[in-house]
Amino acid sequence: MWQPERINNGFREELLFELPEEKKAAGSVLWNPWHGCRKYSAGCANCYVYRIDRSHGKDASLVNKTKSFSLPLEKKRGGHYRIPYGSFVYTCFSSDFFLDLADEWRPQVWEMMRLRADLRFFIITKRISRASSCLPVFWHEIKERVDIACTIENQKEADSRLDIYRNFPVCRHTIICEPLVGPVVFSSLEGIDKVSVGGESGPDGRLCSFSWVLSLRRQCQESGVSFFFKQTGTNFEKEGKVYHIPRALQQPQALKAGINLP
Questions:
Q1: How far apart are CA 241 and CA 231, in angstroms?
Q2: Phi, psi dihedrals of residue 125, rounded to the nearest 5°
């Protein structure tokens, strides 16, 4: 059963949508050791963290440790860990794990990951260019259990991030094209295991074209790479017609397209 961390109702509702469908019911937990971020590239323009914080009168550019910072090591009254054995932990979804403003806290997080050898952690970053310099000395001990995916939202970021990520020392290479805000043609998908694609949610979500999605699927199919169409986004164009799709239907409509590749 998917278990959100102790977060306000706005974030709980939004992050239920942000997490991939296949993970929500698979013993997954959300852990945000710090909150807040600085906008970094085109995909950040309508950031859901900024949008939700703004609705609560908060400034999402202020980065702070959360009350859940030590969640993986917290125990219940009976002595059992709050995060159950074998859980899949979505990590740092209200910030970027490799944000420079969090450099002083990250070593403690790596150590918690090392200590909880029974858990698997999942991180998504746009800052792949500085990720290698942030890895712990014991990375080789934990990398099988820590998945680090890279966001590529448009052609510019494909050109700048793909080769860096391809050579990044993770066991599974996953590209997240979300929010997909333009067509993307990869130079090569060699070394990539999966591409996940999604349009932009939220009231100001930018247009996502089905033709861009199909192009990415075709590239994956030709390269033998797994493909997952996660969500349509709010404004979705197909065959020249633009559809305004309610939040609750964006993932079901993507699934209905039936274009995922194993």
A1: 17
A2: -135, 150
Q: Which tokens hold the place of 111? A: 């150590």
Which one-letter DSSP state was computed for residue 81?
Answer: B
For residue 35, count other CB atoms closer than 10 A to its CB.
23
Model pLDDT for residues 11-54, shown as the tens digit of each residue: 545 555 566 554 454 589 999 999 999 999 999 999 999 999 99
For residues 140-158, give the mean pLDDT.
98
Both tokens of 204, joined, read: 């100001």
Which of helix, strand or coil describes residue 236? strand
Tokens found for residue 3: 């278990």
Q: Do the beta carbons of residue 73 and residue 112 sit within 8 Å?
A: yes
Note the pLDDT tens digit of each residue in 112-127.
999 999 999 999 999 9
- Measured N-to-C along each axis, helices 48-55 and 9-18 cross at an angle, to the nearest 10 degrees, of 160
Integer angstrom CA distances of residue 216 from 15, 132, 152, 164, 206: 25, 27, 12, 19, 18
Measured in residues, the chain has a length of 262
**pTM of this structure:** 0.92
Residue type present at position 8: N
